[in-house]
């Protein structure tokens, strides 16, 4: 792949990106979330068409117009989110895609068993997908792609949802395929997991290839971390933190799917921002769900001002001053179809005493919404306008207006400026900084290192569901961040 460019809605995702794969190798394609790894491989798999650049397969021009074209050329991709019909059996799912290769369920089952035996995987073609484990579903996807004739197998974040034992078994399988002359691409941000199994490594950053097809054995760990993160990450000047009492304490918190043998432990004090940096899929979503009351932890403790809240529902935690800005503002914060005024009043209604009838004061709701629109500069908003009609930045301001209320003592902010333009991002960060200056405590969880460094007084790195390291902002260095993000001590 040479000089590949791709933009979505005018926003560049790839710029002069390249990738070279050889037969008989396992090749790690590494970079932070949003670096362009999956986009580049989606082009190779015929899902996207490039805006510019060339592709060649065995030296011949290769221009797939669809995944079917790519499959006929011998390229297959297993996506991070599996594309299986859960109510169907494994064989029925295979039959959907095999076409003339299998004219009956019996033929599909036979082909699956033969291929599974040939490559050393185990699968029961008669099992319904809904009854399979994540690892078994992944095997079904891989076998389906191989049955379609894939000689180049692209695996997108293949170990993200697997246990340590399952991950090792999968990676050993990729080496067996390479030994048989096939080629495997591992799209990943977990370099430590794939380093021992990959022959070569390519690193991407901000849509560009910054290291191309380097032999894994010849690349230093420190160099990899620097290339992944980049050399432009610097900490912004901020007022010195004057932390107060411990507002939130988490001790040895464990949740389902956690890979690390250690739980999450951290302390958050009044008047400070603790930035939790990490590549997506390392336990951030589960940690937020445990803190906000959406997920019950397997073990460990969570306390607010010394009082345990492990078993308290979200409503009780809000009453103690906990507020949340979720990573997806609509999936976990706002209701698209409701008006701005209705979204702003939702949590206030939830604080009312259960069982008591209460009529909404629409006039007061409208006036409060007007004040919030003015105070937070929510452009294009009106109290009776549906929230889904607002831009992303202005919808985020509605969420801020509701969560940064006078009762807020602890703010869990997960990627608060994700998807926003420069101006909207600056507003969001300024609002959070002002709340902290007034005494609030903020746990900022983000994959954007610039956001972490712009707001945080302390920085912690999460990797594999545990805290890999923590430093005061003045002691944070590029090598330290890069090394821990890549999975190295």
Describe how the helices and strands are arranged:
Elements: E1 2-8, E2 11-17, E3 26-30, H1 37-44, E4 52-54, E5 56-57, E6 60-61, H2 67-72, E7 75-78, H3 90-98, H4 105-119, H5 134-147, E8 152-156, H6 164-179, E9 183-188, H7 191-194, E10 200-205, E11 208-215, H8 221-229, E12 246-254, E13 264-269, E14 273-277, H9 284-292, E15 299-304, E16 307-308, H10 314-319, E17 322-325, H11 329-332, H12 340-350, H13 362-375, H14 392-403, E18 410-414, H15 422-437, E19 441-446, H16 449-455, E20 458-463, E21 466-472, H17 478-485
Parallel strand pairs: 3-9, 3-10, 7-8, 8-9, 14-19, 14-20, 17-18, 18-19
Antiparallel strand pairs: 1-2, 1-4, 5-6, 10-11, 12-13, 12-15, 15-16, 20-21
Helix pairs in contact: 3-4, 4-5, 8-17, 12-13, 12-14, 14-15
User: Which CATH class of the largest domain is shown?
Assistant: Alpha Beta
User: What is the count of DSSP helices, taking H or I runs of 4+ residues?
Assistant: 17
Low-confidence parts: 232-237
**In angstroms, what is the radius of gyration?**
25 Å
Total beta strand runs: 21
Distance between termini?
Answer: 33 Å
Strand order of the largest sheet: 7-8-9-3-10-11
Shape: globular
CATH level-4 homologous superfamily of the largest domain: P-loop containing nucleotide triphosphate hydrolases
Protein name: ABC transporter ATP-binding protein
Keywords: ATP-binding, Nucleotide-binding
InterPro entries: AAA+_ATPase, ABC_carbohydrate_import_ATPase, ABC_transporter-like_ATP-bd, ABC_transporter-like_CS, P-loop_NTPase
Domain ABC transporter: 2-231, 246-489
């Amino acid at each position: 792949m040479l000089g590949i460019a791709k933009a979505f809605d005018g926003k560049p995702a790839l710029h002069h990106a390249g990738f070279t794969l050889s037969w008989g190798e396992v090749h790690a394609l590494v970079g932070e979330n949003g670096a362009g790894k999956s986009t580049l491989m989606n082009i190779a798999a015929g899902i996207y068409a490039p805006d510019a650049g060339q592709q060649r397969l065995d030296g011949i021009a290769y221009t797939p117009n669809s995944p079917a074209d790519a499959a006929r050329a011998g390229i297959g991709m297993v996506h991070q989110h599996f594309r299986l019909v859960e109510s169907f059996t494994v064989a029925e799912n295979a039959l959907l895609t095999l076409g003339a290769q299998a004219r009956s369920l019996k033929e599909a089952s036979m082909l699956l068993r033969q291929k599974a035996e040939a490559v050393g995987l185990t699968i029961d073609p008669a099992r319904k997908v809904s009854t399979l484990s994540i690892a078994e579903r992944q095997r079904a996807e891989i076998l389906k792609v191989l049955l379609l004739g894939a000689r180049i197998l692209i695996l997108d974040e293949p170990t993200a949802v697997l246990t340590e034992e399952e991950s090792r078994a999968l990676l050993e399988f990729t080496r067996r395929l390479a030994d048989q002359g096939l080629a495997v691409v591992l799209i990943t941000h977990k370099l430590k997991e794939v380093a021992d199994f990959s022959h070569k490594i390519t690193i991407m950053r901000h849509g560009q290839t910054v290291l191309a097809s380097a032999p894994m054995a010849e690349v230093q760990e420190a160099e990899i971390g620097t290339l992944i993160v980049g050399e432009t990450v610097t900490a912004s000047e901020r007022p010195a933190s004057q932390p107060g009492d411990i507002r939130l304490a988490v001790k040895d918190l464990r949740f389902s799917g956690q890979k690390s043998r250690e739980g999450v432990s951290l302390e958050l004090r009044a008047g400070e921002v603790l930035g939790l940096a990490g590549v997506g899929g390392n336990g951030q979503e589960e940690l937020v769900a445990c803190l906000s009351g959406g997920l019950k932890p397997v073990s460990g403790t969570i306390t607010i001002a010394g009082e345990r809240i492990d078993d308290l529902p979200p409503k009780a935690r809000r009453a103690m001053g906990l507020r949340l800005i979720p990573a997806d503002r609509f999936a976990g914060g706002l209701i698209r179809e409701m008006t701005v005024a209705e979204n702003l009043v939702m949590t206030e209604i939830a604080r009312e005493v259960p069982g008591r009838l209460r009529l909404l004061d629409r006039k007061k709701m409208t006036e409060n919404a007007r004040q919030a629109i003015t105070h937070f500069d929510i452009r294009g908003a009106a109290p009776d306008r549906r929230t889904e009609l607002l831009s992303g930045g202005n919808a985020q301001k509605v969420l801020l207006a509701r969560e940064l209320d006078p009762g807020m003592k602890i703010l869990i902010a997960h990627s608060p400026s994700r998807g926003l333009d420069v101006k909207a991002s600056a507003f969001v960060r300024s609002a959070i900084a002002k709340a902290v200056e007034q005494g609030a405590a903020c746990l900022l969880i983000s994959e954007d290192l610039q956001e972490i460094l712009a707001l945080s007084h302390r920085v912690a790195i999460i990797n594999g569901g545990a805290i890999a390291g923590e430093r005061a902002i003045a002691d944070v260095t590029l090598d330290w961040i890069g090394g821990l993000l890549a999975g190295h001590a």
